[in-house]
Amino acid sequence: MNDHLEIDNLYIGFDLSTQQLKLTVIDDNYKLFFEETVHFDKELSHYGTRNGVVLNGETVTCPTLLWVESLDKLLQKLKINKFPFHKVRVISGAAQQHGSIYWSHNALSLLSSLDPSQPLIHQLKNAFSIQQSPTWQDSSTSEQCEELEKLIGGAEVLVNLTGSKAYERFTGNQILKICKKDPIAFSQTSRISLVSSFLATLFLGHYAPIDISDGSGMNLLNIHTKQWEDKLLDICGDGAGRELKEKLGEPEIEGIKILGNVNEYFVKRYGFNKDCKIIPFTGDNPATIISLSIKPGDVIISLGTSDTVLIYTCKPFPSLDSHTLCHPFIPNSYFTMLCRKNGSLTREYIRYIYAKDEDNESWKTFNNILNKTRPIKSKIGFYFLLQEIIPLIVVGGASNNNEILKILADVFGIKVWRSQSERKGRISASMGSAIKARLAIFKQEIKSIDNWNYNEIEENYSLIASPDLNNTKIYETMVENYQEMEKLVIK
């Protein structure tokens, strides 16, 4: 890796997603320098995960130590490739939202006394009070969700406070479940991290705060005051609100604040510069917004493991049907998110059952069938979410499938665009994290991010699909059918 000789500074962004740990590195000019990944099922198969998780009925978890070992493995890959660690000025990151990590009471002493001759996995086995971390796919907390909404005064009250009604995957409800069903584990917990702040903690060597953007997906943070809501802490802490507040720590309002230097362990083991800075890590959806350099009013559809609609706004619009989260680094800004967890995995399942090719990775047969299948009233349901909003930008793995994008154009009745950089890995949570790392130095040099121009990283978008308005009219008539199906599923 000799192409770094002319580069002075590098910025790292991580993304600890459901199925992999990804690293993206950029230079001062936001130019992509290097990428690397660790795929959990393939490279850490001894943990027994499938698609990155462990399924046990409605309970969906991931071994916390898998995430620890994935960092070991990723950094070792860089070391073998002679990556110039000494040129990294700032590290940031993102992670799957809602998941939680429970640190034991001896975690801090372990983190502060790491031996650089040994990998993290050999030294942090006793750092966690709960070995299986709840993830965003978990749906085992319906009872806790009902209790939370009842005690706070209803779903609308909760939405207006936190930006979301109670969801099974949200961290507050997961914590309440642990408090009630495993109070000993809760008492043995010194700190509760989100997956994002957990990863930042490893690099700092002490507990990293939860940033307010990722923290907005917990049913615990007041999105207006940007602080934990005491009434919600009391409920989700099963009466121990003050104790839960201590375990969560103070939320971090400044998304690009310098939290400290990288832990000496990484300096000695890998050769990071001792002055390399760590800033708050955030959620994968907030980080993706950064990578797209979108402006207020823009709409993104992310077709990933889950399918997500993101809209950047200058004020909150709480709704029972969506989530409102704080912006990852712009003060008093928000984004609205609508998420469905049956995304790419469901598409892959349908392909496998009904449109399997000899090459299991091919979508040719699937696309041919999709192209020939036109909307038929009462036989397909699709929720018509938005109308006449431009631009509609698509990202995520499935955004490379033009046949799926044609359907999106028909459903929404508008043109669909894809970044020309999507295929180059430019649009991703790890890229957004790397950009945020670069912005930390920009703010340090300019003293403000108000002068930062989105055009510095703005990419060209290609028109992929235009709507067939005849199909759009058919989809409009199917909303009622879809809503009826939703009611049946809920029952």
Automatic annotation (TrEMBL):
Biological process per Gene Ontology, one example term: D-xylose metabolic process
EC identifiers of the protein: 2.7.1.17
Top-rank taxon: Eukaryota
Any GO MF annotation of the entry: D-xylulokinase activity
Reaction it catalyzes: D-xylulose + ATP = D-xylulose 5-phosphate + ADP + H(+)
Keywords for this protein: ATP-binding, Carbohydrate metabolism, Kinase, Nucleotide-binding, Transferase, Xylose metabolism
Gene Ontology annotations for the cellular component aspect, listed alphabetically: cytosol
Record keyword Nucleotide-binding present: yes
Database matches in Pfam families: FGGY_N
Domain Carbohydrate kinase FGGY N-terminal: 132-290
SUPFAM superfamilies on file: Actin-like ATPase domain
Family designation: Belongs to the FGGY kinase family.
Biological role stated in the UniProt entry: Highly specific D-xylulose kinase which participates in the catabolism of xylose. Xylose is a major component of hemicelluloses such as xylan. Most fungi utilize D-xylose via three enzymatic reactions, xylose reductase (XR), xylitol dehydrogenase (XDH), and xylulokinase, to form xylulose 5-phosphate, which enters pentose phosphate pathway.
Identification of the protein by name: Xylulose kinase
Source species of the chain: Funneliformis geosporum
